[in-house]
Amino acid sequence: MKIEIWSDVMCPFCYIGKRNLEQALAQFADCDKLEIVWKSYQLDDTVPETATESYEAYLVKRKGLSATQVQGMLQNVTKMAREVGLNYDFDKAVIVNSRKAHQLIQFAKTRKLGDEMEERLFLAYFTEGKNIADTDTLTQLGIEIGLDANELQTAFTDEQYVYMMTQDIQEARQIGVNGVPFFVFNRKYAISGAQPPQAFLETLRKSFDEWRGV
């Protein structure tokens, strides 16, 4: 059974949602019958490829909130992340366009390493403060999860990976996705946002039983 996840590497709730889903999967006996498919989604495709402002300043401008409000929001998200074992450092986060990172994920998917690439990019972005628009940085991250250094250059030069990314984004629009993370189980049930593990587990069991014909 297929679980499709629309996500953006720059989305803090997407990483938290990934962890919550993983907690649910750890309690699910038939994981070997599941296929996890990561789908591209860009929360803001207008962000430049060169960093010009901090994460906090970007949110102040984008959301129209005060610096104090944004600081409080980031503190809450950092706390949420810590509760699932993640260490967020928004002071180090580099605000750049996620397009190249999505191209790399699309390439990794063709090598059965989509989940590993998502994980590595989330860690790079939210904990390590790496620049996910920098080709050399992305190449190194790809090598770390087992991708071939020479092969993976096509992720940035071959238009098919741009096409795969845009197809995911268009599909999201067609099914009414207007925020991520967005999880679709067996093309029938959906969960929006970083819901608790129990919500994932309940939906997982229901959709799996229907898929299996129980």
Task: Describe the 3D structure.
With 214 residues, this protein is α+β, with helices and mostly antiparallel strands. It has one domain: Glutaredoxin. It has nine helices and four strands, in the order βαβαααααααββα. The chain has helices at 12-26, 55-63, 67-83, 99-109, 114-126, 135-144, 154-157, 159-174, 197-212; strands at residues 2-7, 35-40, 182-185, 189-192. It has a four-stranded mixed β-sheet, sandwiched between helices. A hairpin with a 3-residue loop joins β3 (182-185) and β4. α4 (99-109) packs antiparallel against α5 (114-126) and α5 crosses α6. The longest helix is centred in the middle third of the chain and has 17 residues, at 67-83. The chain is globular, with a radius of gyration of 17 Å. It starts with a strand and ends with a helix. The model has no long low-confidence stretch (mean pLDDT 97).
Supply the key terms.
four-stranded mixed sheet, single chain, 214 residues, Glutaredoxin, alpha+beta
CATH architecture: 3-Layer(aba) Sandwich
| Helix segment tally | 9
Strand order of the largest sheet: 2-1-3-4
Q: Helix amount, in percent?
A: 40-55%
What's the number of extended β-strand segments? Answer: 4
The proportion of strand residues reads 5-15%
Strand and helix map with partners:
Layout: E1 2-7, H1 12-26, E2 35-40, H2 55-63, H3 67-83, H4 99-109, H5 114-126, H6 135-144, H7 154-157, H8 159-174, E3 182-185, E4 189-192, H9 197-212
Parallel strand pairs: 1-2
Antiparallel strand pairs: 1-3, 3-4
Helix pairs in contact: 1-9, 2-3, 4-5, 4-8, 5-6
